[in-house]
Amino acid sequence: MSLPDGINPDRFARLIELARAEDFADVGDLTMALMSPEQRAATGVWSMAPRKNGRLCGNALLPTLLTELAPAARVELVRADGADVGAGETVARITGPVGEVLSAERILLNFVQRLSGIATLTQQFVRAAAGTEAKILDTRKTTPGLRDLERYAVRMGGGCNHRDGLYDAVLIKDNHLAGTKSGRLAYYVFEMLNGIGQLPVRPRFVEVEVDSLDQFRELLVVVGIDVILLDNFDLPGMREAVRMRDSMGLRGRVALEASGGVTLETVGAIAGTGVERIAVGALTHSAPVLDIGLDSAG
User: Fold this and answer.
1) Is 141 one of the annotated active-site residues of the chain?
2) Which of 8, 31, 223, 265 is most buried by a 10 A CB count?
3) Active-site annotation holder among 51, 74, 106, 253
4) pLDDT by 10s per residue, the chain, length 298
């Protein structure tokens, strides 16, 4: 399979099989079975177009999807993933047997609509933070099994990916620190980080979550932390955290990440505080699909 970087071919193949199973079961397309063999074999041409403006994502999956679901069909990709597209604009043309293409139609659209919706919402967040140093990041709040695809959609929307999963980075959150006595946070985190050399792989980064400026102040003295996550901080708290970090000469060594209830209405002000990273779970858990149709073109 020829797929975009970051999409595991084996996992995607399993997704296609799951999609096929939930649509066809072990019976097939009953509606198509009522058509004559001649009707099913007739060649049709279809145009894929969004019904609203948005950011396109998922077109790059169509050749692989058609190979598995409608092998006699061919696709022309008119627009590339990451393109801004308008309502009614043709983004792909599919030619092939009526029976194969119409049976595969919903699976094709489900993938492209979902990913285009994520890319479109991500683009909106990125634009709202424009003019600042802040990057918009996704989170692990992804649809089970779809993480590769949804993270790809975030990139196509101009956002950035956080950790791949639990296996590639260290993120010490409040639940990991539950019960830690006041004033002992730095020691506890330092002791945890002493074990990094015993891990099976070197983490891409080490991040620690705090929920107060007192906790933040403690962690600034711990060597080995790459990112400090400011969880549900208000704007004055974020600005003060940036000031404290910079006053210690740690800009460029310790990045600050804002997280918690970030919306399109608030992300611009958050980005203006000087944090370098803004994590937005809504990119993947709350993105509406971009409505896309596949209509006969001849």
Assistant:
1) yes
2) 8
3) 106
4) 589 999 999 999 999 999 999 999 999 999 999 999 999 999 999 999 999 999 999 999 999 999 999 999 999 999 999 999 999 999 999 999 999 999 999 999 999 999 999 999 999 999 999 999 999 999 999 999 999 999 999 999 999 999 999 999 999 998 998 888 778 899 999 999 999 999 999 999 999 999 999 999 999 999 999 999 999 999 999 999 999 999 999 999 999 999 999 999 999 999 999 999 999 999 999 999 999 999 999 7
β 43-50/206-210 pair status:
unpaired
Give the chain's domains with CATH numbers.
9-119+288-296 (3.90.1170.20), 127-285 (3.20.20.70)
Q: Active site residue: 20, 79, 93, 141, which one?
A: 141
Which of 81, 207, 218, 231 is an active site residue? 231
Integer Cα distance of 183 and 287 in angstroms = 40
The DSSP secondary-structure symbol of 134 reads P
**Whether this model's pTM surpasses 0.85:** yes
Instruction: Identify whether 173 is a catalytic site residue.
Output: yes
Active-site choice (209, 218, 257, 276): 209
Q: Is there a catalytic annotation at residue 52?
A: no
